[in-house]
Amino acid sequence: MSEPTPLLFQPLRLAGVTLPNRVVVSPMCMYSAQGGYANDFHLVHLGQFALSGAGLVFTEATAVSPEGRISPEDLGLWDDQQIAPLGRITDFIHAQGGRVGIQLAHAGRKASTYAPWRGRGAVPTERGGWEVIGPDGAAFDPTYPTPVAMTAEDIARVTADFVAATRRAEIAGFDTVEVHAAHGYLLHEFLSPLSNSRTDAYGGSFENRTRFLLEVVRAVRAVWPTHKPLFVRVSATDWADGGWDADQTTQLAGQLLNEGVAVLDVSSGGLTTAQQITAGPGYQVPFAAQVKAAHPDLHVMAVGMIDRPEQAESILQNRDADLIAIARAFLGDPHWTQAAALALGVKPEVAAQYARSTRST
């Protein structure tokens, strides 16, 4: 009898969408858009991963409003004119047999900053910067913009922006939407006591600090087609005393499951310069495993320094996660999926034009 197919290369059905395998290209900011518009760079960059057989390819963090961009060069989906350029990408990935998702985001107090290779900290208005918003008036660090504390009206407006961007994502042909609530950006800022000093209904208790995210998720789920899965990315811990932690993440995960979230994408950090991260291969997997053990009906995606096929397969076999998100390893080798298949004894499923290729591990 032949060996069973490794879990990494078994399909996974999420709502009405079937992923051909469990390999996911994690959202990675490329800082290569102008005015929020996707261009040929994004088509080639994202398309190459589908050509090598990745089951699900995510866009980078895509801002739901102009002031929600991390940098002036971020992708956006706040305007109907931004739909068609993204549609080129979804059409191409679908033609290769892959699935494609979009990560919708608002950078909050970490907005209006330079792309990493252009500088650090706040972009001044004369260079395209803008006023930023956050839970309160505290900046991420002294080099970053000082945010304006959001009013209840601002919270309602941003929620509506997520909804409008979700509707555009459906028109653009995306198979899934991920709400970005990690890495110190706006929704994460509301979750953590270290960045949320509010005294109204959106600050203080766990219930209040999670309110904004749950409102956004509920509103997005209401307009996103029921046959398409909804993802949420969280930072499981701030890696800092008094901050958001794994136990709060696990509690939140149950609420997100009840709101119709199909997959929790478990990352960590990014909220504070005081973070003390102990990094290493698969260092975030225990957080994913904790959520999965507490909520077996919720699909969980592991991410963070997972770059070896055997490592990815072991995570799935241990039932620590259902999906494996990979970032930097794909930048180093866009054909990582093909190489992983060969390493695990599976015939790679790649585009016909690449069938003559031979690879070894």
From TrEMBL:
Keywords: Flavoprotein, FMN, NADP, Oxidoreductase. It comes from Deinococcus metalli. It comes from the Bacteria. Its cofactor is FMN. CDD domains: OYE_YqiM_FMN (cd02932). PANTHER family: NADPH DEHYDROGENASE C23G7.10C-RELATED. Pfam families: Oxidored_FMN. This is 2,4-dienoyl-CoA reductase-like NADH-dependent reductase (Old Yellow Enzyme family). Residues 8-340 form the NADH:flavin oxidoreductase/NADH oxidase N-terminal domain. InterPro entries: Aldolase_TIM (IPR013785), OxRdtase_FMN_N (IPR001155), YqjM-like (IPR044152). One of its GO terms (molecular function) is NADP binding.
